[in-house]
Structure formats: structure tokens, C-alpha cells
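User: Hi! I'm working on a homework problem where we have to compare a predicted structure to a textbook description. Could you give me the structure for the chain below?
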Amino acid sequence: MTAPATTIRTYDISARSTDVFGRVLVSARNNHFVVDGPVQNGCPGEALTPAELLLSAVAGCGVELIAVIAKDEGKKIGAVSIQAHGVVDRGNQARTDRTVFNSIRLIVSVETKEKTTAAELVEGFKRRCPIFGTIATAVADTKVEVVVV
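Assistant: Happy to help. Predicted C-alpha cells:
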């Protein structure tokens, strides 16, 4: 019998500037990676940008959690993939004090014979992923499409 998982999750990340303008070195645990500001800001734009990392985080959280929830519930599924698309229109913001995404679209593909199974797993991800919850709360135009493959 395994001990119950704690309900508290903590995350510690550090980021520091580099000798290249607009390039940042990010560290998480023993992992290190480069983040670039976008070309529009005069930055290199060669590595992932912060906005791309946010969309990557929600997509990664979704793929992982859908698999975990399926396993926990004894549901048989195959491959899972998520395509994420975000739009920031700085000239048309919902708020005057913060820049936010205007819209975010997720297309979730689940390999299963049952559309109901896929839909239930995606709802589970939406309830459980703190990244999705944060995005859905901040971005009024957040849509998730479920595709069965």
C-alpha cells in the first residue's frame, strides 16, 4: 500500500539574464534551459519565448494528466496530444492594468473508441491542472476542443 500523495505541490524556478540581450537562463531543479524574448521586443527570438512556454506548460500538463487520470480510472486509451494556440493583441486588451492573452484554444486528441471517455478525461484535466485553471480564469476566451482519433 502506498502512502497518499500530499495535496500541496511547490515549485521553485530561477531565471537570470545572460550576456545576450533578451536571452534568459532558467533553472528548475537540475534542469537548465534558455528562454528568449520575442523578436518584436528586439530580442533573439531563437529559443522558446515566455508565451510559448506558458502554452507548452498547459499542453504538457494536459497530456500528462489525461494519461494519469485514465490509468487511475482504469480507462484504456492510446496516444494523447494537445495543440495550443494563443493570441495576444496588445491593441485590444480586456484590462487596462495587465496584458493578457485575448484567446487560447486547445485541441486535445485522445486515441480511444469512446468519445465519452475522451470528454470525461479532458474534463478531469481541466479541473485538476493548475495551469489550465489559471489560464481559464484569466482569459475569458479559452476554448477546448476534444478530438477522438
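For your comparison, note the following. The chain has a mean pLDDT of 95. Strands lie at 13-17, 23-28, 31-36, 80-87, 103-110, 141-148. Good luck with the assignment!
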